[in-house]
Amino acid sequence: MATQRILDFLATRRPEGPCLVVDLDIVENNFHAFRKALPDSAIFYAVKANPAPEVLRLLASLGSNFDCASVAEIEMALEAGATARRISYGNTIKKERDIERAAALGVSLFAVDCVEEVEKVARAAPGARVFCRVLTNGEGAEWPLSRKFGCVPAMAIDVLVEAARLGLVATGISFHVGSQQTDTNAWDAAIGDAKFVFEALAEKGIVLTLVNMGGGFPTRYLKDVPAAEAYGRAIFESLRRHFGNRLPETIIEPGRGMVGDAGVIKAEVVLVSRKSATDENRWVYLDIGKFGGLAETMDEAIRYPIVTARDGDLMEPCVLAGPTCDSADVLYEKKPYPLPITLTIGDEVLIEGTGAYTTTYASVAFNGFEPLRAYVI
Amino acid sequence: MATQRILDFLATRRPEGPCLVVDLDIVENNFHAFRKALPDSAIFYAVKANPAPEVLRLLASLGSNFDCASVAEIEMALEAGATARRISYGNTIKKERDIERAAALGVSLFAVDCVEEVEKVARAAPGARVFCRVLTNGEGAEWPLSRKFGCVPAMAIDVLVEAARLGLVATGISFHVGSQQTDTNAWDAAIGDAKFVFEALAEKGIVLTLVNMGGGFPTRYLKDVPAAEAYGRAIFESLRRHFGNRLPETIIEPGRGMVGDAGVIKAEVVLVSRKSATDENRWVYLDIGKFGGLAETMDEAIRYPIVTARDGDLMEPCVLAGPTCDSADVLYEKKPYPLPITLTIGDEVLIEGTGAYTTTYASVAFNGFEPLRAYVI
């Protein structure tokens, strides 16, 4: 929801063009909610969700750790005040020279999901700690989870054995249950897989200590989602069930769940029209679309709440589209979006829950439109 | 195909990281081919395909006109040496204040597809020329064409009548047969629709003069495509058939067809791995993906030719993915891509036919990766 601070900012500053406004108070609340929900887990904020310096500085000051996808993100986290010990290079796809750069910056925790990546880390960051990502099925997640990251648990055993053999510290297992995961039990099967790998390695004399439980914590879009406490409870119970009294260290990597509901995009209605006299749906065109920051509407995956000043009026399903000359730049068409029948050209709309995966997804200059501006307040 | 000039540039300069190299000689050849194929049509280059200043300057010097999607693109075309008379504001979705800005820059030709847009143009650019876009079905096009732009021909009549009533010059009809259109006859039905609207308006005393036949001209990816001459012949015959001896002025708006085959992306293999010991396909990860400039691999729509130094070796279908921590950043998976079985980490690959719709589609900084760099030679 748009907070009063965001509404006041927009009313006072009246920025021209589409923009994102992020309320740091919400980010801080979310951080505390995660800490309370999973008090024994270290929080590694997924920088890719929103790398605004103000967000990173706030989280660094609150004691957050950082999950980074690239050397540039590592540098941003350091710049924001994190120490290298608080940074994980969580991308399983790294150039060897980037591993070397990260190691030179002091980073010593790396994600891997195959022997080939282990070999790179062993050469470029000798003695570093590595965790191996295992595949999960992503059921219950709204953003599609592919098989891109991770290997099957049986292969994770070989990967970590090889890591140990090459002088790395085989630290543990990671997984990701899929972004915008609304099933609090989604973590359970993967925690079971982690335990399986822990036992298999223990038999080989390698003691794992870490379970990186990834992200996936949802933000509220149109439907209610379980609160952080519900996830905390389900995850803790699952850890207890699988690991008994010998609980491993754990990490969580919230991104969307940390910043999603802290941001609101202000946009403008550029055109409202029909394609024929008998057209069933009106077309509503905004000054932001798939290439301007709303990439997560791809396949209509994420459905953002949209607020207008006319929401008391009669609603009618509309096709919603962006402003570029690209026919793929349509946000919601298969499932049209209900908007007030009185909505008109020039109206302002607020697109809520847009604090994550918007600014950096925006294209450089597609159709000459500048990237999404952001104000962090 | 990578030209010798591009290969020499890469061999000499050895740029670090993924980059696009565009050979201006090819752009010039393409311009001449279009001019020869459709000698009576004015060429309006679709700036959005690749707005590199060098490309725009070359085309301006060759006498090209420019189809612009935004005020920023209009400014780029002017900067490159085009006069305002040679610019069309071809986006049917415009803010009124942007129409005003364009008019202030001297632009006097605007696209519309509804009465609402006509009203904006009448207020913000009194007396301007407008053409109305009509819907086509996009059959035969490889990049999805939605119903986003245009109205049915019957509605186009009302739109242009209203334009005339509001003091605008109702100039003609435009349409787009869909990007990467491989059927040379795809223009025919739309030219017939244009003729229908011409006649209907003539009965009302409004004489249309222009048919804007849009873009859609393909570039060669993996499959051969008809040459510009074949399109020229089919289009000219269709114009003759529908308009007889009273041929209208015509415009074409090539974008992909002008620059697509002039560009090659140099990328690097970051990782080659399998997900399990029995995995059927290897996964090949590049340092460029869907968010770094290859957005047109969305739904595996555009299938680029990929060249490696090992192409003589045995080939095997691979899943091809990008370098970001986003599970949606997979290029080809439903239909795996054949690559040499010897392809290995650190190898360079050339992704051909990438001169259009790559650089400006690239995200600002997703996962901390910088946008695609481009060299125009």
From TrEMBL, chains A, B:
The keyword Lyase applies. Residues 26-259 form the Orn/DAP/Arg decarboxylase 2 N-terminal domain. Gene3D superfamilies: Alanine racemase, Lyase, Ornithine Decarboxylase, Chain A, domain 1. Its EC number is 4.1.1.17. Pathway: Amine and polyamine biosynthesis; putrescine biosynthesis via L-ornithine pathway; putrescine from L-ornithine: step 1/1. PROSITE patterns: ODR_DC_2_1, ODR_DC_2_2. One of its GO terms (molecular function) is ornithine decarboxylase activity. The keyword Lyase applies. This is ornithine decarboxylase. It comes from Aurantimonas aggregata.
